[in-house]
Amino acid sequence: MAENRKTKNNKKEAAVSSKEKDKVKKQTTESINIHVSDLPAKLVSALADEVAKNVINRLPSVIPRRSGDKKKSKKIENAIFLDTSAIIDGRVFDVINLGLLTGTVVIPESILLELKHIADSQDTIKRERGQRGLSKLDELKKSKRIKVMHLPDKTNGEEKEVDEKLIEITKQHRGKVITCDYNLEKKASISGTVAININTLANHLKIQAVPGEALHIRVLHKGKDTTQGVGYLDDGTMLVVENASGEVGREIDVIVSRVIQTSAGKILFSKKI
After folding, report:
1. What CATH number has the domain spanning 79-204?
2. Tell me: domain 214-272, CATH 2.40.50.110, correct?
3. Which terminus of the chain has fewer CB atoms gathered within 10 Å of its CB, N or C?
4. Is the Cα torsion angle 38, 41, 46, 50 positive or negative in sign?
5. Within the chain, how many helices (H) and strands (E) appear?
6. How far apart are CA 93 and CA 136, in angstroms?
7. Half-sphere exposure of 235 (CA within 13 A, CB side)
8. Which Pfam families match (predicted)?
9. What is the per-residue pLDDT for 63?
10. Is the dihedral of CA 153, 155, 159, 163 positive or negative?
């Protein structure tokens, strides 16, 4: 009997203790709510922001990052972008093989597609030039004289011309464009992009003959005037010889009389010595 009474008393004490705990917890909660409501709104907002930041930092794989936090595309050092016209022309590969260009040769996807389209052309000449360009690119990559890389286009849903894409991506990587297209060269220059025209480079490298200079030349054919003979210097510069129509097929000494500059280059006029 005594034990039963003792057990009942313990149960009563536990029940009273539990009720007191709940009462205290209720009072504490009410007190906290009262104190939070008394805080300034700005302070509450600041605390909420700080808590949110801590949660995001602890859960990086769960909370997706904003697009602005994405890594920027890595810039290509000393990027050399080849235009379709330069690839088809082929002289740029001779310049590279001589070691005059250093860096990374970059072929954008749009240029490669345009070159492939030319290589698949129904026109025999265009097809051969396109195929030769693709072959030259493949040889350059295998030779390992210079690093060659293919760069996919970033369309972003926008349709742009090949030249515009080339200028934009060259400017993005602070590279240079090599081309044989005069209009592309000027357009790139206007937009603040470095462009090198192979034709302009070739003209600068031609022999700088001046009036009064003596040359040894082989006359290959007659000129526009039936009395003229025409020959060429080693760099391809045309040399017109007065009164030399009868010298076709022979080598003669001449003296330069005048030099004419044209859009295609220089033409030298001379007289037989």
Report:
1. 3.40.50.1010
2. yes
3. N
4. positive
5. 9, 11
6. 7
7. 15
8. PIN
9. 45
10. negative
Q: Which residues contact 145 (CB under 8 A, 6 or more apart)?
A: 96, 97, 99
| More confident of the two residues 27 and 166 | 166
**CATH 3.40.50.1010 residue ranges for the chain:** 79-204
Amino acid at 87: I
CA–centroid distance for 96 within its chain:
18
Beta bridge pairs of residue 194: 176
Q: pLDDT tens digits, residue range 103-125?
A: 999 999 999 999 999 999 999 99
Predicted structure pTM score: 0.60
Terminal Cα distance for the chain, rounded:
149
Distance, in Å, from the CA atom of 72 to the CA atom of 173, rounded to the nearest integer, reads: 12
* Dihedrals phi, psi of 164, to nearest 5 degrees: -65, -40
Token pair of 110 as six digits: 């749009």
- Name the residue with tokens 């060429």: 232
Residue 4 and residue 107: Cα distance in Å, rounded? 95
State residue 69's pLDDT score.
Answer: 44
